[in-house]
Specification:
- This protein is of the alpha+beta class and 150 residues long.
- It has one domain: 3-Layer(aba) Sandwich (Aminopeptidase).
- Helix content is 24%, strand content 28%.
- The chain is built from 4 helices and 7 strands.
- Strands 1-2-3-4-5-7-6 form a 7-stranded mixed sheet.
- 33% of the residues are buried.
């Protein structure tokens, strides 16, 4: 069941994201970041446990939003959960007035299959790099930028 995240989900989201962050697949997120941005998150719940999450974050720059922290528990991968979570974010985007959704990702092929197109990071506003200064890969970013136009 996919639904909007609630405060009570924050610790489970934190654990899921940071388990993948330890493997270098997504960027680590502090627990306070998840609490502060809980309204951005969609979660997949199975047997009362969070098994997937994805956030749509408004950049505060015209009509731009970002997909962040897309993760699915290992034993549930390959079932289309990631795709469903991203699609929930894309469906929510126009409701928020977001017409362009980008992702900085280590899994560009996954996003390309969903209709995202490669984009040069230089085309994105500098404000998007606020997370970058805290990244372990900064300044040698290994993520690719992709964008979806609603």
């Amino acid at each position: 069941m996919i639904r909007k995240a609630k405060i009570v989900d924050a610790k489970a989201i934190y654990e899921l994201i940071n388990a993948w962050a330890k493997e270098g697949r997504v960027l680590e997120r502090p627990l306070n970041h998840i609490y502060e941005n809980i309204r951005d998150f969609w979660v997949e719940e199975h047997a009362k446990k969070i098994i997937g999450c994805c956030a749509l974050h408004s950049i505060g720059w015209q009509d731009l939003g970002e997909i962040k922290s897309l993760t699915v528990a290992k034993k549930f991968q390959g079932r289309g959960i990631g795709k469903k979570l991203v699609n929930k974010c894309l469906a929510e985007a126009p409701i928020l007035g977001i017409r362009n959704v980008f992702a900085l990702t280590f899994a560009a092929q996954f996003f390309k299959k969903l209709g995202f197109k490669p984009v040069d990071r230089k085309e994105l506003p500098h404000k998007i790099w606020s997370d970058c200064v805290n990244c372990v890969y900064f300044p040698d970013c290994r993520e690719e930028a992709v964008i979806f136009k609603i």
